[in-house]
Structure formats: structure tokens, C-alpha cells
Design brief:
Blueprint: E1 7-14, H1 18-29, E2 34-38, H2 44-49, H3 51-67, H4 83-93, H5 100-108, E3 112-115, E4 117-120, E5 125-129, E6 135-146, E7 150-152, H6 160-163, H7 168-173, E8 180-184, H8 188-200, E9 203-207, H9 219-232, E10 235-237, E11 242-248, E12 251-256, E13 261-264, E14 266-269, E15 273-275, E16 307-309, H10 320-339, E17 361-364, E18 369-374, H11 377-382, E19 387-393, H12 398-403, E20 410-416, E21 421-429, H13 436-444, H14 449-452, H15 465-474
Parallel strand pairs: 1-2, 1-6, 2-3, 6-16, 8-9, 8-14, 9-10
Antiparallel strand pairs: 4-5, 5-6, 7-15, 11-12, 12-13, 17-18, 18-21, 19-20, 20-21
Length: 475
């Protein structure tokens, strides 16, 4: 093993996914020298095994479903999807799992890339062990930002490793359609991958431990998605846990807690995420390896004046767009502290990740899509506020019927009755993913309901659902 002498940078970033890239972009824009360490592909989980490949798989599924709702087009799209073409299109969006373009972008902003495994080696120090055994020691004058994200969490079932189960990575990168697929879980990954692979030709069995799907959203979101999956041919079983799983002569055999035996070609466990902090040297600075890293609103790790944790690793919101938002905040905070200028950490200030606390948007790209921002009714009631939920059928919007025959969807806004502002909005239905940003603006900006009355939706669009919601609230 060879080792270079210590090299000093203003900032060292662990992880070159979208979050790490954005921290580097902001610190470089402020004139700080920045090193980025990555052990896999530059671009991270989102680019190669999550957001981009999953949405590439889902896009033709959703487009076909939408087309089948339109008279005159329905008959033209009755055949099966071309699975090979869909998978090839997915490969295009992952750049065939090559990161040349992302490396070029990182180098273009002036960041220095170190390939290899990065570990903290005490305060402000990172060692990097490269693929050929070479070792670099990097020191940070101002900040180390941990942007290592999360990995799939598998349950502790005996012999599970011998089954070679799918996680989100295999589910988004598989090159063949399994004839039978068991999906374990009821969250975003489970529902999106069940939607995609069922449409591509798999017979999907979805095993959900809880009472319904998408438990973190309003109950009606999971109900509508479950109904659609069932209509598409999936076998959705709620209140069901996996007791054992084995692979016998290539066939996966699942036994549930109800005694059912299910055979499949592959099994996907979408049962949670764990922080990728188990081997990054946290013990050298008095922190627990493998733990989530608690942070303040500038994304600085509690008890440290130089260590930042940005994105999934801090467990505030496990979403790429929220991690990139945090990265912009963290980069600005690091730059301000380096320059010795005051920070604006007030609510909605330039150095405060305020949106993490009540204005987090999310879209689940199933059919129908489910989108939400802010608090659900149950979450809002738990805060002790006086609240009211207003529900409307999205088909009441003139644009819904034009979007497709038999449009099924539901919208809810949760109103703070004392302040008359929105605490949360949930939309479920075809095409609602493109509507959620208007709700995000209303929630984040705390727009009064009286002012929203004057935000006129264009006719005839599905956005007219806003008018229906406000009319229902006014009574």
C-alpha cells in the first residue's frame, strides 16, 4: 500500500451522489477548494439504482395506462409493453452504469475527485483507500460533509443471504423480467416496483405487514394504489409477514405467518433503509458506527463545529430532492462560516433547512400517482392544532375528464383553522405528480386560504381541483 502526504482542502465531501455533488457545487461556487470521495459511481444511488432507472421503468407503464383512458387511442395500445425496449431505455438513463458524464461535470466545477473508500481518521481528517491500494490523507480546513446516503435494509430471516434476494438495486437494474415476483413491503419502493414489473409481465404478489400501502400518506392514497394494483393483476396481501424464505432448485419459496406457501422466481425486499455510516470512521470522533447523524438546521452534526451530515444520512427526509435542498443550505452555511460572515438561521433563512420540518413533498409514481406535501390529517392533529381536512373527488375538476375517461382520484387539504393556512395537501390520481409543486408553494409560503381564492386555476385543467377544494372549505 502506498501513501501520499496529507493534502489540505477547505472542504472534503464523502459521497458523490446528488447530495455530495450539490455540496461541492455550492462550496466551489463560494471559492472554497473541495475534494469529493466516492467508492462507487459518481452520481450515486439516485442516478443508477433509484430515481432515474425506476422512473425510466415506470414512464411507459404510466403512459400506456393514460393512453388507455383516452377514446380513439385506447385500442392502439392494448398490446403488451416491449420489455426489451423498456429495459434498454432504462439503461440509457443510467448511462449503462458508466459515470464519465458525471465525472466530467464534477471536474468542470473544479472539485477534485478521489476514487476509493473514505474514512474519518479523527477531526477534519479523511483517509482514502483507492482501488489499487493507494492511500491518500485529506485534511479539511473548514468542513467535512458526510453524504454517504443509505442502503437497503434486509430482515433478519435465517438463510436470507442464500436466497440472493432483490433489493431496490436489483429491482431497478435487472435485465430480465421474472415470471413471478414476490415484493415484500408496502412503501414507495414496493409499490413502484410492483407497478413496473407487473406491467412488464411479471405475476406480482405484494406482501404487506401493515394494514395498507403507503402508510406515511393519507390512508386513501394506499387504498387507491392497492385497488389499481389488484385490477392490474397483482395479488396484494395486507397484514401478512414473511416467516421464512428459501431458494429450492432456483425457485424462491416463501412461507407467510398465515401459513401460505408462495413460489416465485425472484423476491424483492423493500423493507427499509439503513445509514451508510458503518465503516466511515465515526468511532474516531466519538460517534457510533452505523448510526444516523443528528444535525441542526444548518446540517451541522450535533456537538461538532466542522462535521456536516447532508441527505438521507441524517434521517430527516429520505428523498433526493430534499437532500439536494439540504446540500444547498449546507454549502451556503459552510461558505458563510469559512468567510466569517453572519448566518441567517431564522425560519426560511438562507442557512436554515426549514422546509424539512413541514413542507416536504413526495411523489409516488404508481398508477394512480400519489403525491403529498406537509402534514397528513393525523400528523396535524397530533400537533395539537385546530385543523380541518377538506376532501374532494378530483374528477370534479373539468380537466380530469379530458385527461382520461373514468378518471379516479382524490384530493385533501389540511387547514390550520386558527391561521387559515395549509398544513398539508395530498393528491392521488393520474398526472398529479405535476400538480404537487403548487401545493408545496402554498404550504411552504403559508399562503392564506383567502389569498389562494385569488390564485385562479387555468381552465380546463386538473389544477381546477384547487377551486373545488376552496369551495368545499368555504361551504
Amino acid at each position: 500500500m502506498t501513501e501520499t502526504e496529507s493534502i489540505a482542502y477547505d472542504v472534503v465531501v464523502l459521497g458523490a451522489g446528488p447530495v455530495g455533488e450539490n455540496v461541492a457545487d455550492r462550496t466551489r461556487a463560494a471559492g472554497l477548494s473541495t475534494a469529493v470521495v466516492e467508492s462507487e459511481l459518481v452520481g450515486g444511488e439516485c442516478s443508477y439504482w433509484a430515481c432515474m432507472p425506476s422512473k425510466a421503468l415506470l414512464r411507459p407503464v404510466i403512459a400506456r395506462a393514460d393512453a388507455r383512458r383516452v377514446p380513439g387511442l385506447r385500442q392502439a395500445v392494448q398490446g403488451p409493453l416491449d420489455a426489451a425496449a423498456v429495459l434498454a431505455h432504462r439503461d440509457y438513463f443510467t448511462s449503462d452504469w458508466k459515470d464519465d458524464g458525471q465525472v466530467g461535470w464534477l471536474e468542470g466545477i473544479g472539485a477534485v475527485l478521489y476514487r476509493g473508500h473514505g474514512r474519518l481518521a479523527g477531526p477534519r481528517t479523511v483517509t482514502v483507500t483507492g482501488p489499487d491500494g493507494e492511500r491518500h490523507v485529506l485534511t479539511a480546513r473548514h468542513a467535512v460533509a458526510v453524504c454517504t446516503g443509505t442502503s437497503a435494509l434486509l430482515p433478519g430471516l435465517p438463510g436470507i443471504a442464500d436466497v440472493e434476494p432483490w433489493t431496490s438495486r436489483e429491482a431497478t437494474s435487472a435485465h430480465a423480467v421474472p415470471g413471478r415476483l414476490v415484493v415484500v413491503g408496502g412503501g414507495v419502493v414496493a409499490t413502484e416496483m410492483a407497478t413496473a414489473w407487473q406491467a412488464l409481465g411479471s405475476q406480482v404478489t405484494l406482501l404487506v405487514r401493515g394494514a395498507g400501502l403507503l402508510a406515511r400518506m393519507e390512508p386513501f392514497a394506499g387504498e387507491l394504489v392497492a385497488a389499481a394494483l389488484t385490477e392490474a393483476g397483482a395479488d396484494v396481501r395486507t397484514g401478512t409477514s414473511v416467516k421464512s424464505v428459501t431458494r429450492e432448485n432456483g425457485t424462491v419459496v416463501v412461507v407467510t405467518d398465515t401459513g401460505d406457501r408462495i413460489e416465485a422466481d425472484e423476491i424483492l425486499f423493500a423493507t427499509g433503509r439503513a445509514p451508510r455510516t458503518e465503516d466511515i470512521g465515526l468511532d474516531t470522533i466519538g460517534l457510533e458506527p452505523g448510526s444516523w447523524l443528528p444535525v441542526d438546521d444548518t446540517l451541522r452534526v450535533t456537538g461538532n463545529d466542522w462535521l456536516y451530515a447532508v441527505g438521507d444520512v441524517n434521517h430527516r427526509a429520505l428523498l433526493t430532492h430534499q437532500g439536494k435542498y439540504q446540500a444547498r443550505i449546507a454549502g451556503a452555511a459552510i461558505a458563510a462560516r469559512a468567510a466569517g460572515t453572519p448566518l441567517d438561521t431564522s425560519a426560511w433563512g438562507a442557512h436554515s433547512a426549514t422546509a424539512d420540518h413541514g413542507a416536504v413533498p413526495q411523489v409516488v409514481f404508481t398508477d394512480p400517482e400519489a403525491a403529498a406535501v406537509g402534514l397528513s390529517l393525523a400528523e396535524a392533529e397530533a400537533t395539537g392544532r385546530r385543523v380541518r381536512a377538506v376532501d374532494v373527488d378530483i374528477s370534479s375538476a373539468a380537466g380530469a375528464g379530458l385527461y382520461g375517461d373514468g378518471y379516479r382520484g382524490r384530493a385533501r387539504m389540511v387547514v390550520d383553522l386558527d391561521r387559515e393556512t395549509l398544513l398539508g395537501v395530498t393528491l392521488v390520481g393520474p398526472g398529479v405528480g405535476e400538480l404537487i409543486h403548487s401545493a408545496t408553494v402554498a404550504v411552504a409560503a403559508e399562503v392564506p386560504v383567502a389569498r389562494l381564492w385569488h390564485a385562479v386555476p387555468s381552465y380546463p385543467t386538473i389544477s381546477e381541483v384547487w377551486l373545488r377544494l376552496l369551495e368545499a372549505y368555504r361551504g
